[in-house]
Amino acid sequence: MEPSPSVPSPSLFDLSGQNVLITGASRGIGAACAIALAEAGAAICLVLREPKDEAPPNLATIDAIHDLGAAAHFVHCDLDNLDSVKGVFQKALDAMGGRIDVLVNCAGIQRRSPSLDFSETDWDDVLDVNLKSVWLLSQAAGRHMVPRRHGKIINFCSLLTFQGGITVPAYAAAKGALGQLTKALSNEWSQHNVQVNGICPGYIATDMNEKLLADPARLRQISERIPAGRWGDPKDFAGPIVFLASRASQYICGELLVVDGGWMGR
Predict the structure, then answer these.
(1) Which superfamily does 10-265 belong to?
(2) What is the pLDDT of residues 227-255, one digit of tens each?
(3) Residue 171 catalytic?
(4) Where is the signal peptide (predicted)?
(5) Is the pLDDT of residue 54 over 90?
(6) Helix axes 169-189, 120-127, angle to 10 degrees
């Protein structure tokens, strides 16, 4: 691993000249992260779902990045189509001029059902998107970054990397495994100057949690247990993502950074 650079501390967070590939950035946490990385100087490539005739692609994040005067590209891939996932990193490389410095795996899906009734289809869908697609993208990124001895991979894990949750067995299994995958890749690739880390969001006010937000009893139970006194906002991830994507985290390896308003401290 290269030593941490000796530069003024604000420069450690400068991402000028860096190319970032990010999934799950059309909305929510992913969109906030993509915009924050662009504000720090990076060029961004978003992975967007294949366009459907009845629904035009959501390009709001692309437009927001362009409004900053930053470079933004996108490639199409449905992360539940693993054959498509296997080719998307090369598509992104082509779009970014043959170099990707940072991979952010932020996309994820949720299925809620009591475990006695949880379907095999829902299990497979969640594991494919939340774990196997991350593995395939990370492996492709590693094959690109390790020989170059330069790169960052940031996986979005969860509080359910540590806890079991309720009525979300597939999500808990996927996120628990993703935490271990993050550490396993870090153990192999840190010596090649590729840092692999994870971010574990707490309860964040996004579309994924709309059922919890709409349930008065669960909303009260959860809110009362958050020491910070509020649910998180996607903008709360701007600082953590820039930190882990930048030279400021040069000696951070295999870490699971919890961003939860103090939930895990309880």
Answers:
(1) NAD(P)-binding Rossmann-like Domain (3.40.50.720)
(2) 999 999 999 999 999 999 999 999 999 99
(3) yes
(4) none
(5) no
(6) 30
